[in-house]
């Protein structure tokens, strides 16, 4: 048995990312932590550690196995606490069940990562099947911890995977915050004089006007500048887009910064992403490797799963490579943007029908029900996603030998692009075919797509690993 002296008051402290109760010091005997590490991590000056931890040799193999298991539990929580995603992944590759590891207070590695805002660690844990709604001893979920610690990016990530916020406090360190009110107009209205166009560069044009790279308060931004001569409908369309964007917060959604709506020309200001759009990237790179295409598809699907979250469903209606942006030239990360044609729908329950009619969006990526002016819902975005995933693997736009309108007509007649590239694994091909199904009710949701892609990614990584071993 090991023990330590401490003040009589009950003290909780964090070690290896684990909350231990010193009043139950005997439980520490199950954790093989060296005295050196404990002294280094000891967070309470004035509370002296009297004796080193001592562990007796296990009596049999079962105890040895249990000790090894608890040691790995301690390690994964420690690495999650210190944002060491490589070490976390290595442990999970050796033992996937560690993703469900629990400390004394029933906290999982995802609780630890969420509390500290470690996005890469959280993504890794979710990839290996972490329960986003696991509850600790206080009945708090990882999302409740992230909200309590005000880790906004983490909050959006967990919500995109169906994370729920409930628990006694929301966080063990801070009270659960009251959700902020929606921004007032004055919070996002930008004075035109604050925008610096002295070194502006045109990065896009359309019938609405142009998109420029400019600077706002010293920061590069993208400015959608609307032609003053546009009709009232087009102007109201910009205001509609602003009203949508101001509510969106997600790592895979282009961040809205502000707008000019009280003076002409009207302008919409968003973050500037240096990598350009996916259309240009594919034009330069051609067909992507399966692993790259899967990673890109995951980013798009995460953003779309967030938009499709009930009860406030946002249907993009114009999902295409030009509206998917790369955060940098290394193409590490993608974001969905351009919500000019998006539609916000209030859903009372998951069985509600919220369908619209009208030919909206870009023909080449358009769902057949839209082209036919039939009723449609959020699954139109799933169809467009399938066409984008196809293009990433093929290297050419779908039905590139057809003009856009003719391509949409051909698809509406029941035809689909043919698979030519070598990057189509059977699982990817099956997913694409289900996503562009003629019957929109047969298309999976983006949450389902995320799960499928994660499994395909895991299988692809394993195949790459075996291939690398074979070639070394």
From TrEMBL:
Q: What class of enzyme is it?
A: transferase
Catalyzed reaction equations: L-threonyl-[protein] + ATP = O-phospho-L-threonyl-[protein] + ADP + H(+); L-seryl-[protein] + ATP = O-phospho-L-seryl-[protein] + ADP + H(+)
UniProt KW keywords: ANK repeat, ATP-binding, Kinase, Nucleotide-binding, Repeat, Serine/threonine-protein kinase, Transferase
Write out the GO MF terms: ATP binding; protein serine/threonine kinase activity
Source superkingdom: Eukaryota
- Any idea where the Protein kinase domain is? 197-468
Indicate whether Thylakoid appears among the record's keywords: no
Record's GO cellular component, any one? cytoplasm
Record-listed ATP binding positions: 224
Question: InterPro entries recorded for this chain?
Answer: Ankyrin_rpt, Ankyrin_rpt-contain_sf, Kinase-like_dom_sf, Prot_kinase_dom, Protein_kinase_ATP_BS, Ser-Thr/Tyr_kinase_cat_dom, Ser/Thr_kinase_AS, Ser/Thr_Kinases-Pseudokinases
Q: What is its EC number?
A: 2.7.11.1
Query: PROSITE patterns recorded for this chain?
Result: ANK_REP_REGION, ANK_REPEAT, PROTEIN_KINASE_ATP, PROTEIN_KINASE_DOM, PROTEIN_KINASE_ST
Please indicate if the UniProt record lists Repeat as a keyword: yes
Which CDD domains does the record cross-reference, listed alphabetically?
STKc_MAP3K-like (cd13999)
Instruction: Give start and end residues of every ANK repeat.
Output: 105-137
PANTHER family named in the record: SERINE/THREONINE-PROTEIN KINASE TNNI3K-RELATED (PTHR44329), SERINE_THREONINE-PROTEIN KINASE VIK (PTHR44329:SF289)
Annotated family: Belongs to the protein kinase superfamily. TKL Ser/Thr protein kinase family.
Name of this chain's protein? non-specific serine/threonine protein kinase
């Amino acid at each position: 048995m090991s023990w330590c002296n401490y003040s009589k008051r009950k003290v909780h402290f964090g070690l290896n990312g684990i909350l231990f109760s010193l009043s139950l010091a005997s439980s520490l005997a199950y954790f093989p932590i060296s005295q050196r590490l404990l002294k280094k991590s000891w967070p309470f000056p004035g509370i002296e550690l009297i004796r080193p931890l001592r562990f007796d040799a296990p009596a049999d193999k079962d105890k040895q196995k249990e000790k090894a298991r608890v040691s790995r539990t301690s390690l994964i929580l420690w690495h999650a606490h210190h944002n060491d995603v490589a070490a976390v992944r290595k442990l999970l590759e050796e033992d996937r069940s560690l993703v469900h590891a629990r400390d004394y207070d029933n906290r999982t590695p995802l609780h630890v990562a969420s509390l500290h805002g470690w996005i890469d660690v959280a993504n890794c844990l979710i990839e290996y099947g972490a329960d986003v709604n696991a509850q600790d001893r206080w009945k708090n979920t990882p999302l409740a911890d992230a909200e309590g610690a005000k880790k906004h990016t983490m909050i959006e990530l967990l919500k995109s995977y169906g994370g729920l916020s409930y628990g006694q406090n929301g966080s063990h360190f801070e009270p659960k915050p009251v959700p902020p009110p929606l921004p007032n107009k004055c919070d996002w209205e930008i004075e035109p004089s604050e925008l610096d166009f002295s070194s502006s560069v045109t990065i896009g044009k359309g019938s609405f006007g142009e998109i420029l790279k400019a600077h706002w308060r010293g920061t590069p931004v993208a400015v959608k500048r609307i032609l003053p001569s546009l009709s009232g409908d087009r102007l109201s369309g910009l205001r509609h887009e602003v009203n949508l964007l101001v509510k969106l917060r997600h790592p895979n959604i282009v961040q809205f910064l502000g707008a000019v709506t009280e003076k002409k020309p009207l302008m919409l200001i968003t973050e500037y992403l240096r990598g350009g759009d996916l259309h240009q990237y594919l034009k330069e790179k051609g067909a992507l490797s399966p692993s790259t295409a899967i990673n890109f598809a995951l980013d798009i699907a995460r953003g779309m799963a967030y938009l499709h979250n009930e009860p406030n469903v946002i249907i993009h209606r114009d999902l295409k490579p030009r509206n998917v942006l790369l955060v940098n030239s290394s193409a590490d990360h993608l974001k969905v943007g351009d919500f000019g044609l998006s539609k916000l729908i209030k859903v009372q329950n998951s069985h509600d029908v919220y369908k619209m009619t009208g030919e909206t969006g870009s023909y080449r990526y358009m769902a057949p029900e839209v082209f036919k002016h039939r009723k449609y819902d959020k699954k139109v975005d799933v169809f467009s996603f399938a066409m984008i995933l196809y293009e990433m693997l093929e290297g050419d736009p779908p039905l590139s030998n057809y003009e856009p309108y003719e391509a949409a007509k051909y698809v509406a007649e029941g035809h689909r692009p043919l698979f030519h590239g070598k990057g189509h694994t059977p699982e990817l091909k099956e997913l694409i075919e289900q996503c562009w199904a003629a019957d929109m009710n047969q298309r999976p949701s983006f949450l389902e797509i995320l799960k499928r892609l994660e499994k395909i990614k895991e299988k692809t990584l394993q195949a790459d690993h075996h291939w690398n071993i074979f070639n070394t």
